Amino acid sequence: METTGARRSLAGLPLVWGATRLVLLLFVLKVYVFPGPDVTSDVSVIYHGWYDVLRTGTFPRGDVTWQYPPAAALAILSPALLPFLDYATAFFVLAFLADFAVLALLLYAGLRSGRTLRGAWVWVAGVPLLGPTVYARYDVMVTAVAVAALLAGARRPRAMGALAAFGALLKVWPALLLLAARRRSTWGAAAVTGVALAAGFAVVMPGAFAFLTSQRDRGTEVESLGALVFHVARHFGWSGEVLLNYGSMEFLGPYVDVVSMAALALTGLALGWLLLWRLLAVRFEPHTLADAAFVAVLLFTTTSRVISPQYMVWLVGLAAVCLCFGGSRMGRPAALVLAAAFFTVLEFPYWFAHVVASDPLGVALLFLRNGLLVAASLIGARSLWRATVTPRPLAPLPAQPARTGETAVGS
Question: What are the angstrom distances between the C-alpha of 222 and each of 217, 245, 328, 364?
Fold first, then answer.
């Protein structure tokens, strides 16, 4: 029966993936128009503008919207691999191929002994829940690298280290994949790859690390957890405003700096908890590497000053890797992330005007989405701690048979 179920699941996965991804392509190619702001303008305008600068051999240092590590240049330049297509179309095709690569990796992992296809289903279902934004940002490419790194972790520790370092130079967060890595070869490969790539970019392309100081004056992005303070405060006469700042809609005005500092403090607390967990964890199973990475990225995403819709792609990908393992404790957090993905596409782009206006519908959507992320973070952290740190109760000793001639107490 299990074999029959697995075969049906394996047959259904490519069909559902193909149908849902065809719809996403039709939206980004504008055969059909998805409601709300045009999510493809980041590719056709911003990414294309960076592409023209990067081709000259330098980073767009004068552009405050460039806030990415140096290897991000490779993602922005990647449409050059398809010169027979215009820039935007080539980018969407490459994002589609990255999506397919994740599915292939999850299928390969899920069909191995002791694994499941639940992870592949999480990816197949989670990506379309986020709408066309997935193909209009380069985060799906970063997620493909992160998924490959985690799945390589058990058998190819050096490959995991190299891929995690490459991913970190694409968009920083894949560095968190190394949290539960215990082999020196993983850390060694990560260090060598990271230093070599960083040095190469620094020598070849000026401005490779300008991104480190590019976000000092950011406000609080309207979709973040901290933004809920100002969404509510606007109904009680708060005098600040929402403006396009550093490439996203942010709150600017009184007390924004206080809330932004509070968000950074929460991120610091999350980092402290993760380091404490790493010091105290004593039980490491095959799925612990993925579970720890998922929880770490959940905590950093939820406490961030910016919870952009594309961040959810990371969480869906890592949740999918966790559920490839039959013993993973991340089933409930993964389900909460999928629910959060659904509310994410409603708040952006579908009803983003309501979010920017802080009207009841927009505020309600943010409370639901961010509340689900908070719940997923807390449940995931608790499950990880219990599975790896909390001592397991000792099994009771078997009762000893009474010896001949002895009487029971109280008889």
Answer: 15, 11, 33, 13
Q: What's the token pair of residue 163?
A: 């891929």
pLDDT at 318: 98
Residues (pLDDT < 70) of the chain are 1-9, 213-217, 392-411
Q: Report the largest interatomic distance among the alpha carbons of the chain, rounded to a whole angstrom.
A: 96
Distance CA(207)–CA(154), nearest Å, equals 36
CA angle, residues 294, 264, 291, in degrees to nearest 5: 10
CA nearest to 27, candidates 136, 124, 113: 136
Q: How does strand 220-221 pair with strand 248-252?
A: antiparallel
How confident is the model at residue 337, as a pLDDT? 98
Measure Cα distances from 364 to 130, 207, 259, 312, 315 in Å.
18, 41, 20, 19, 22
User: Distance between CA 140 and CA 189 in Å, rounded?
Assistant: 24
Pairwise CA distance, residues 262 & 257, whole Å: 9
- Give 220's strand partners: 251
309-355 per-position pLDDT tens digit: 999 999 999 999 999 998 999 999 999 999 999 999 999 999 999 99
Count Cβ atoms within 10 A of the Cβ of residue 101 and give its class: 0-12 exposed, 13-18 middle, 19 or more buried: middle
Q: Which helix (H) or strand (E) holds 252?
A: strand 248-252
Distance CA(252)–CA(314), nearest Å, equals: 28
The kind and range of the H/E element at 381 are helix 360-388
**Can you give the pLDDT at residue 68?**
92
> Helices 118-129 and 2-28: crossing angle, nearest 10°?
20
Q: Which distant-in-sequence residues (6+ apart) come within 8 Å of 316 by Cβ?
A: 122, 123, 126, 127, 130, 143, 337, 338, 341
- Residue that is written with structure tokens 């620094």 in the block: 202
Question: Amino acid identity of 6?
Answer: A
Residue 411 has a pLDDT of 30
Q: 249: part of which helix (H) or strand (E)?
A: strand 248-252
Query: What is the predicted pLDDT for the residue at 393?
Result: 62
| Cβ atoms within 10 Å of 96's Cβ, excluding its own | 18
**Pairing outcome for strands 241-245 and 220-221:** unpaired
For residue 245, give the 3-state DSSP assignment. strand
Q: Where are the alpha helices (DSSP H) in 244-351?
A: 256-280, 288-302, 311-322, 331-345
